[in-house]
Design brief:
294 residues; 7-stranded parallel β-sheet; alpha/beta
């Protein structure tokens, strides 16, 4: 099925399936959970390219935002650049669609995309960053990669992230670097907490900081969800205490949270109940030229 419940896109297209973990954000991979339910004996680390799926977007006449490889990473080491080239050729033939490619392998993305001309006007490239370390590793490479829109997926958010770092690019024939903040080269930021039975919590202050950084830089901000855990700041005191006192629940367990945040301030609430309001507001912003039609 091409349709999806992912709030920030319209359809998914999976010419590649299967992946491998590369950082802490992969620990409780939702795609791996889906694979275990439907793939039988096939392991999620068995990366496969599906040539029979390449032409799917050609049959979707209505313009749509298409998330490429929700069940994999197009720039996985097991995917040949010849196959990636075929994927790009299909995108070139479908100017009515927007193609959203998200990767944790920013180095391979940069290596493949950077030398290719012309720039696809319907190509959005993004990197997943879950904490400051992965932000430092992946964002500079994204900023060096040509794309109509560059975006970040901060999901699952596992720690505070400061996007006000400088990056440099050299002008032709000029040895002086151009210094900009990361956010000056980013067109969109998505943020969300983790879901699933082993989900890790996300502190509201991390999300608020990210929202405020985006607002200051005039970058669209999309808040997807809180995830399974919720902080006491977001609940009425009576409800929090009722949930907190249910310590017999198998899901209430010791948590390892970075930056000195205490696990005692969280309770397991469930993704649906926790919702996606941030200080009473839904954040559904998209890059300026695109409106959410869902």
């Amino acid at each position: 099925m091409a349709d999806t419940k992912i709030q920030w896109t319209d359809k998914v297209w999976n010419p590649v399936t299967g992946c491998a973990k590369v950082s802490q954000g992969c620990k409780n991979c939702y795609a791996e959970t889906i694979a275990k339910r439907f793939w039988g004996e096939r392991k999620f680390t068995d990366v496969q390219c599906h040539e029979e799926r390449l032409t799917q977007p050609l049959h979707w006449k209505k313009p749509a935002k298409i998330f490429v490889n929700s069940m994999s990473d197009l720039f996985h080491e097991s995917v040949s650049f010849d196959f990636v080239q075929q994927v790009f050729e299909i995108m070139l033939q479908c100017p009515q669609h927007i193609f959203q490619i998200l990767t944790k392998r920013a180095d391979r993305m940069n290596w493949f995309v950077r030398p290719r001309i012309p720039l696809l006007k319907n190509l959005w490239l993004g990197v997943s960053v879950e904490n400051q370390q992965t932000a430092k590793e992946r964002i500079p490479l994204l900023l060096q990669t040509p794309a109509a829109v560059r975006f970040l997926s901060v999901e699952p958010m596992l720690g505070a992230i400061d996007l006000n770092y400088e990056w440099g690019a050299y002008q032709d024939g000029n040895n002086s670097p151009i210094r900009k903040l990361w956010l000056h080269g980013i067109d969109w930021v998505i943020c969300g907490g983790e879901s699933g039975p082993n989900a890790r919590p996300m502190h509201p202050d991390w999300v608020r900081s990210l929202r405020d950084q985006c607002k200051a830089a005039n970058v669209p901000f999309f808040f997807k969800q809180w995830g399974e855990w919720i902080h006491e700041d977001l609940l009425e005191p009576k409800i929090f205490l009722e949930l907190f006192n249910k310590k017999t629940s198998k899901k209430y367990k010791q948590l390892t949270i970075p930056n000195g945040y205490s696990f005692d301030n969280y309770v397991w609430y469930g993704k649906k109940k926790a919702g996606r309001l941030l200080d009473g507001v839904e954040h559904n912003e998209f890059p300026k030229e695109v409106k959410n039609e869902n």
